[in-house]
Amino acid sequence: MKKNQNLHALRFANGTAAFGEDWGGAPVSGDPKAFVVNRYESQDKQYQVGTWESSVGTWALDYNDWEYCFVLEGRFHIQPEGGERVEFSAGDTFVLEPGFKGTLEVVERTRKWYVFHNR
């Protein structure tokens, strides 16, 4: 990553990778595996940027923080508790806000960029 004062250039070749990292989701169906590559973390550790990848299966989500996502590849559904299921695929974006609860069902291996803000 090149640094230029407050500019950070993020490259796919750079980052800290973790397989099965505790990223906040809990498997509830199938045998999904997550692969996280954190490519940037702010000095105060409140912001992270990276890629998240998952195999097929379903995750339970219970968010206390804020996350913006851009889907790079794959297909999945997010089902909010008490809400309607929303389908996502490559090119889609979405935001999960603090207090979100529901499930994420990966139906085709998925990879996405994330921007995460810890509260």
Automatic annotation (TrEMBL):
(S)-ureidoglycine aminohydrolase cupin domain sequence ranges: 42-114
Cross-referenced SUPFAM superfamilies: RmlC-like cupins
Membrane-spanning residues: none
Pfam family, one: Cupin_3
Domain of life from the UniProt record: Bacteria
The name this protein goes by in its record: Cupin
